[in-house]
Write a structure and sequence with these properties.
By secondary structure, the protein is mainly beta. It has 2 helices and 31 strands. Strand 19 and strand 20 form a beta hairpin. The radius of gyration is 24 Å and the shape is globular.
Length: about 400
Amino acid sequence: MKILSLIKYLILFFLCYAAKLAGAQQRLVMSGGYINIANGATLIVGNSSTNAIVRNTGYIITEGENNTLKWNTGTTTGTYTIPLGYSANYIPVTFTKTAGTGNGYISFSTYHTGWNNAAMLPAGVLNVNYNGADNSAFTIDRFWKIDAGGYTAKPTITNLLFTYLMSEVTASGNSITESTMGAQRWNSTINDWGDFIPGVTINTTNKTLTVPTVGGNDLFKWWTLPGLSGNHFLPVELTSFKGECSNGSVNIQWHTASEINNDHFTLEKSSDGINWTAVTTIPGAGNSNSPLDYSTTDETTSGETYYRLQQTDFNGRSIYSSIIQLTCGEVISNAVATTVYPNPSTGIFNLQHAPVGATLSIRNPLGELVLTDKITSTDQQISLENISNGIYILTLYDGKIITTHKLMVQK
């Protein structure tokens, strides 16, 4: 049976490829019935056009992490629909894609797990834990694969829409409130669900959940939908953090799209972008699925000042925002256009057009300093070979200007 399935899909691929060579636009048109990709087979769509798959009725079944629809999307832009199905139900995934860099592809599959997700993890996913405890009962009974490969710079995708089945929300053993579900993907670099915190829009009538934007650096393979009313993966989604000068003081505002277990925010400031002191602490909303606005005033600022926001949840875990810089009463020059490459890297990063004499510091997501150095050349190399995989923040401060870059160590 496995050999017959492979032959079937290989024939389909070569027919499409032959049509391309003949100058035709190969397309898969579905008008009833279904295609069942099984036994680890891959159905390859060689046409990058968004209408290379046209679905009138019917659907494509994968139901296994190795049963794959591979779409050679390349640099084509537009809205793609993946006509997935399960047990006579149509559960499509749709998204809008930017170009990306390189002749890449996106692979898709999805499969049902039963309520105990931890017993049916995809390869490379180590758990569905929250705070060290199994979170299966608060996670929908399905995993989705959205795997971008072959790109030197992965595309950004927007309006990523998942269609879910109510039977996989309410199955015996689950404790999920449909209206508070979110979306989460497993970061295989740092082995964690919690570094990317997307806000979502839920349509409980159509049974869809939409993630507004997923940047190329955040486009990892495996996704699931946790229920945010019980134990969960998601902390706080910070949608903006900004400040403005006003009569000698600084007004700081930030906005959140959602909050989970958010105990408080701590506003910190610095005169050099390296050494930080707390300005004030603002209580968080705890749990919220609605947009919230926060603001505070720093009355003691003068000259050039840097601000960042620390968010702390109820279990003591903290993460930091990006850094903003303000100089009240004078105009500052533009930041130095320093380039960091390759990124991600196995640990060796090159800085191009670096500001000579500047102080370089690298911190982990908890704000802990892991490296400090001086820039001695406009083209300088830094080594993080002895640092574990993960995302780090590089800061350059030349006495007047601060610039930050996100680094990903992936060995």
